[in-house]
Specification:
With 167 residues, this protein is an alpha/beta fold. The chain has three helices and seven strands. Strands 1, 3, 5, 6 and 7 form a five-stranded mixed β-sheet that branches. A two-stranded antiparallel sheet has the order 2-4.
């Protein structure tokens, strides 16, 4: 069997930089870095913790339906965790469309598996809502507008921990 030189992983950083260069941006994309992120140990065991889920996918919208005024699909949104949505809108996001798909919602919004973990006692539970954040590539807007909204919603929902799932 011959060895291949094809990488066995997707080089997202390289692909993102190439994408922005192809769009005509004069400087390479700068990935956000937060050395002082306020991560902390759980205040209770995972088996007792309520988990919130945050995704970068958008709510499903039927083709041809007008978007709401304002940021529209680029605004923080929330949806019920039960029942989980059958589909979300992902086509406008930068994921590897050549090697994967997003037809299986559980692969990027694992609400059903988390509910099973809660039923088995592995986690304390899942919040009643999951939350979506836009991927508009504005670090300022993410820090100043979106993150505070998501934090407030997770606190309203009684979340002990948040599972962040970028797409």
């Amino acid at each position: 069997m011959a060895l291949t030189t094809h990488p066995t992983f997707v080089r997202y950083i390289d692909r993102t930089r190439a994408y922005y260069a192809a769009q005509g941006y004069p400087t390479p994309y700068a990935w956000a870095r937060h050395q002082d992120a306020p991560f902390a140990p759980l205040a209770r065991p995972l088996a007792a913790a309520r988990i919130a889920v945050v995704t970068t996918a958008s709510p499903w919208r039927d083709p041809g339906v007008a978007q709401a005024p304002g940021r529209g699909a680029k605004a923080v949104w929330s949806g019920p965790t039960a029942p989980p949505p059958e589909r979300l809108h992902t086509d406008d996001l930068a994921w590897d469309k050549e090697n994967t798909h997003t037809r299986d919602v559980d692969t990027y919004l694992p609400l059903r598996p988390l509910a099973a973990f809660a039923a088995a006692g592995r986690i304390g539970g899942v919040t009643a809502r999951f939350h979506g954040v836009p991927t508009d590539y504005s670090q300022r807007r993410t820090l100043e507008e979106d993150a505070p909204q998501v934090l407030a919603r997770c606190r309203e929902d009684g979340a002990d921990a948040v599972l962040l799932i970028p797409l």
